[in-house]
Amino acid sequence: MVQKYQSPVRVYKFPFELIMAAYQRRFPTSPLIPIFVHSDIIFESKSEDGATHVIERRCTLDVDAPRLLKRIAGVEYLYFVQKNTLDWRQRTLHIEAYNESFSSRVVVSEHCSYTVHPENEDWTCFEQSASMDMKSFFGFESTAEKIAMRQYAASIKKGKEIIEYYLRELEAEGVTFIPRWSTPSTSAIVSSAKAIPTSTSREEHRRAPKGPAEVLSRSPEGEVTWNKLDADYIRHCLGELSPLQESCLIRLRQWLQETHKGKLPKDQHVLRFLRSRDFILEKAREALCQTLTWRKQHQVDFLLDTWQCPQLLHDYYTGGWHHHDKEGRPLYILRLGQMDTKGLVRALGEESLLRHVLSINEEGLSRCEENTNIFGRPISCWTCLVDLEGLNMRHLWRPGIKALLRIIEVVEANYPETLGRLLIVRAPRVFPVLWTLISPFIDENTRKKFLIYAGNDYQGSGGLVDYISRDFIPDFLGGDCQCDVPEGGLVPKSLYHTAEELENEEVKLWTETIYKTASVFKGAPHELLIEITEVSSVITWDFDVCKGDIIFNIYHSKRAPQPLKRETLGSHGLAGPSGNNMQVIDRSWMLGQDYSMVESALTCREGESIQGSHVTRWPGFYILQWRFDNTPACSVSSRPRVDDVLASLQVSSHKCKVMYYTEVLHSADFRGSMTSLASSHSGFSQLSAATTSSGQSHCSSVTSR
Question: How many CB atoms lie within 10 A of CB 64?
Fold first, then answer.
C-alpha cells in the first residue's frame, strides 16, 4: 500500500535569504538531527551569474529500528540522495529526495519547497510532500512501514524547530539581515543603496505588518480564501494535530477542491469526519460526500431560517441550551425523564421531532463557532446534560424507541464528533433497559464520552462540578442558576393525530425540497423536458453526481415529443428502473433531423457538482439528458483491465445516480443565483467556505465544477 503525506504551509516570518542561511547550517551534519549521520556532495553546479545553485548530496541515516531488523536487512545505515535547486533570482529552493538503499523493495520519494509568501515578501513558506511504497521487506513489511512513518513524523515535527534554532544562532552572531541577490553588474550599487537594519529587524519580521499568519489565508469574514492551509491556522483554529493527521486533512480538502470546485465545507466540519473515521481518508471522504448530498437534498442549510418550531414543542419538549461547561463547550440540557415522548410522537410525528433535533444540532454548530471566538481556542463540540428523573416504562413505548433510534442514526451519520461529553444524572432502575435497546446504535467512540450517575452521585466531587461551573449548574439539580428549559408534562390526548394524518405530515416535511433524484442506467438515460415559449429565456441547472460517471447533454426539438415513458432494461433481464428514470426522446428520432444538440457534451465524474446555464435561441422543446458514461476513466492500454471486465458483468456497475435542480428564468431576471442562481451561490452547503458562480452566456452555457 502506498502511504502519502502532504504538509500544511509552514510560515516563517523571516526573509527567504535569512532562512536559506539557517537551512545551509544543517550540512554536512547536524547534532539536532540524530538520525542524520553525515552527507557528502556528489554533484554541484552554479550558473554563470550565480543565480542558480544545484547540489546533490548522498545522505547517511541511522534509523531507529530494532537491532534484529537491521541484522536481517544486513545494513547499519540507510542512504538517500537529495537534490537541492536554489534559485536566488526567483527566491525558491526545491528539494527532491529518494532512497538509494533497498530501492527495489521500497520506493520513497519526497519533495520540499521554500518559497516567498504570496502576500508578504519578507516571509517564507515551507511545504513538503512524500510517498512510500513498501513492496517487500524480508517479511517485515508492516513493521518496517510503521517504523518509517514514525521516524518521518518525528522529523517533520522537529523541522521548524531546527530552522528556528539556526536563526537564533545567526542572530547571536550578529547576522540579522542578508541582502537579496542581484546581478553582478548592479550588486555594488544595490548593496550601497541599502542600509543594513539593526538587530531589531528580526523582531520586526516576527511581529509582522498586520495580523497573524493565519489571517493571510482567510477572508475578513474568517473564511479560507487561499487554497492552502498554514500550520499556525491549524493549531489556533482547529487544535493540535499530528503531522499525519494534518496530512489527512489537507489531502481530503484537496480532493474536495477538485470535485466540488469552490464549494468547500468548513475545515472544522471536514476534521470532524476524519476524527470519526480514525483519520482513514477513504472512509471519511465517503461519509462526508454522503452528508453533503443529504444536506443539499433536504435543504438542511436553511433549516434554522425555515423551521418554525410548533408551539407544542415550546411547551412540552424539555430541552434547551444553557451557558457552557468548564472547557467552553456549549451546554445543552435535556430533561428526558420529564418528557412525554409518547405524547409528542402521537401529536407531532417522528419527522417533526427529527427536524427539531436537527435544528438543535445546527444551532450547536453555530454556538461552537461563537465560543471559539469568545474563548480564543478551538471548540468543535458541545456537552449534553441529560436528567432522567421521572423515567419509567412509559418512555419504553415501542414507537417512541423507534423514533429515538431513527434520530440517533441520522445524527450519528451527519453530525459526527459534535458530542464532547454526555452527562446522565439521576438514572433510575429502568435505565439499563433503555440503554440495552439504544447502545448498539451508538458509535463506540461516542459511548466512551458517556458518564452515568445514579441517585445523587452527581453531587459533590467527581460529579457535575468537575465539568460544569457551580455558577451554571441548573436549579433543579441543586445549583443556583435558573434554567429556562420547559418542565414538560403530559401532552393532552386531544392534540393527538391519527396515523394517517401523521403520515401525510411526514411526507410533506421530507418532500419539501427543490432537488430531485434520478437513476441513470446503461441504455436508459434520464431526460427532462422543458418547453420554452419566449426566446432568450435562460435554463439553469445545478446537479450532483452521487454515484457513477455520467454524460450531460442539452437538446432542442421543434416537435413535441410523445407522452413521457419509462424504459425497461430488457438487456439485463430486469423489470426496469424505478419512477425516477424517464425518457423523452423517441427511439425513432434522428439526431440532426428531429432534434439537435445545442451544447457540447459534458462528462461528469462521481462526486462532482455541476452548475450552469443556457440562453435559449429558439422556442420549442429543450431536453436535458443525463446518460451513462461507459468510457473507462483511464485507457492507457488498448487491452481491457481485469477490473473493467468484472465490472461489466455486474448490473450494479451500470447504474448512476444524480440529484438535480433546474429553473427557467426570463433573460432580464437572470443573475446566476441558487434558487434562481441570483446571488451567484450554488447553495451546496451552509458549511461551505466558498461558492461557485454560474457564469452568464449569451448563446451557450457556462458550466462550473
Answer: 11
Q: What secondary structure does DSSP assign to 196-233, as a single string?
A: PP-THHHHHHHH-SSS-GGGGGB-TTS-B-SSS-BHHH
Q: Tell me the one-letter amino acid at 250.
A: I
The end-to-end CA distance of the chain, in Å, is 30
What is the chain's mean pLDDT, rounded?
80
Strands 655-665 and 602-604: unpaired
Q: What count of other Cβ atoms lies within 10 Å of the Cβ of residue 671? A: 14
Task: Name the H helices within 568-684.
Answer: 642-648
CA 174, 176, 180: angle at the middle one, nearest 5? 130
**Cβ atoms of 519 and 577 closer than 8 Å:** yes
Which run of H or of E encompasses 341?
A: helix 341-348
577 phi and psi angles, rounded to 5 deg: -65, 165
- CA 383-283-449 angle, to 5 degrees, is 20
Instruction: Over range 270-288, report the average pLDDT.
Output: 92
Whole-angstrom Cα distance, residue 627 to residue 622? 16
Radius of gyration for the chain, computed over Cα atoms and rounded to the nearest angstrom: 31
The model's pLDDT over 107-138, given as tens digits with 9 standing for 90+, comes to 999 999 999 998 899 999 999 999 999 888 87
Instruction: Return the closest-CA partner of residue 651 out of 574, 536, 582, 703.
Output: 574
| Grid cell locating 519 | 437513476
Query: Looking at this protein, which amino acid is placed at residue 10?
Result: R
| Three-class secondary structure of residue 659 per DSSP | strand
**CA-CA distance, 199 to 170, in Å (whole number)?**
11
Average pLDDT (499-508) is 65
Q: Are the CB atoms for 329 and 364 separated by under 8 Å?
A: no
User: Whose grid coordinates read 502532504?
Assistant: 6
Cβ atoms of 135 and 107 within 8 Å: the answer is: yes
CA 665 remoteness from chain centre: 33
Q: For 233, left (φ over 0), alpha (ψ -120 to 50), or beta?
A: alpha
What does 264-312 look like in DSSP terms, one character per residue?
PBPHHHHHHHHHHTTT-HHHHHHHHHHHHHHHHHTTGGGHHHH----HH
What number of other Cβ atoms are within 10 A of residue 679's Cβ?
Answer: 13
Q: Which cell is 590 given?
A: 434522428
Residue ranges in 474-552 assigned as alpha helix (H) = 499-511
For the chain, the maximum distance between any two Cα atoms, rounded to a whole number of angstroms, is 95
Residue type, 667: S
Amino acid code (one letter) for 557: S
DSSP summary character for residue 687: T
**CB-CB contact of 682 with 611 (8 Å):** yes
Q: What is the DSSP letter of 13?
A: S
Instruction: Give the position of cell 520506493.
Output: 107
Q: What is the DSSP letter of 383?
A: E
Higher-scoring residue by pLDDT: 228, 625: 625
- Contact (Cβ atoms closer than 8 angstroms) between residue 470 and residue 480: yes
Beta strand spans in 408-547 (E): 419-427, 450-454, 516-521, 526-532, 538-547
